[in-house]
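Forgive a beginner's question, but might I ask you for the amino acids of a protein and the tokens describing how it folds?
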Amino acid sequence: MSETGRSSEGAHNLVRYHERDVERFVVEPAKNPQRTPFERDRARVLHSSALRRLGAKTQVLGPGSDDFVRTRLTHSLEVAQVGRSLGQALGCDPDVVDTACLAHDLGHPPYGHNGEKALDVIAAPIGGFEGNAQTLRLLTRLEPKTLTPCGRSVGLNLTRASLDAVAKYPWAKGEGPGGPQGKSTRKYGCYDDDRPIFEWMRAGAPAARRCLEAQVMDLSDDVGYSVHDVEDAIALGRMDPALLRRPGEAGAVVEATLNWYGREADAAALEAAWQRLTVLPCWIGSYTGSMADAAALKNLTSQLIGRFVSAVADATRRAFGPGPLTRYDADLVIPEDTAAEILILKGAAVRYVMAPREHEPVYLRQRTELFDLADALVGSGDRHLEPIFADAWRRAGDDAGRLRAVVDQIASLTDTSARAWHARLCGLLSQV
């Protein structure tokens, strides 16, 4: 199909994007001719209830732990800014990348990855739970916006290009790299009952290959995690910059990184990356919370983001040349040194924040709350479900469909509402 400079939905130039890229699962009439289809996609995600709920969902530290900490919402906004900058440098449509970055965490449940683990256990009889697959389900089914003629929800009804850009793991469970025994049994982007729209989204795409915009989103997410989690850790006193250059500390951070992210990483490369970062002129040697220190910490985050984005943009341009790079025209090139620097910063957050918290009583309590809540909701039918999920329960033809409705309901909750639902429903049912 030929390239298009004007879509049926907008009069803006969509360089290097094709007619099929701006198609929607349900055809919609042309509206404002001054807006591109991709601008409409971004607006739909930005105004979604799912995005608002991220403001009360855990990023690394819980939303109620401190006014300074990042939530899933602030993280997503920052990822979108990083992604937009990198995408523009490569010639991607900035709204496609922005949409993917804003949407990438929409499917995450209350309590972050701790909650994701609990829901995966709860959903084991129906194939499990995965935050990325839940994001697709939310965008294409659960978020109210567009209905088919027969009344079935298709979620936000995003364009094919924007929806595909959210697909960090573009395969169903066990059908990606490594097959049934590989990583794709844990990280996947589609549940079985969402296959029809997933297959529509992937029409014409190379099997198991992410589009360039999805790669930009994924890297921006990693940059956000690596830089901003370190910033939070320093600002909240979890990580003391004065101790980071002491003998043996680099080895301890490397070990934490390998334990958390996998032993296949090169330990020597990670230690070299740590040494490079800690001798940068912008690296801070101490932090007291003063105005000067806070400004220096913010400058550190800016410099690190610029360092990573520039290195990746330059390397990708050297490999694929000038001109707009979109969809499947290119793959993101991440220099080995840059990848090691990003990973070791993520490992620093593991050592000082994430690993210590794993043994805190609150994390066991959170999982227990979700297990209790699932039992209460399954046992009470559709009585306590919100209308959208109660309707899904009633439409379900079997126990599997009803359990998925319960899982969808729990996944939609924030940290705050999950605690409130547990207190209300589990306390109520215990008195029956």
About this structure: Residues 1-13 have pLDDT under 50 and may be disordered. The chain has three domains: 19-201, 227-357, 361-430.
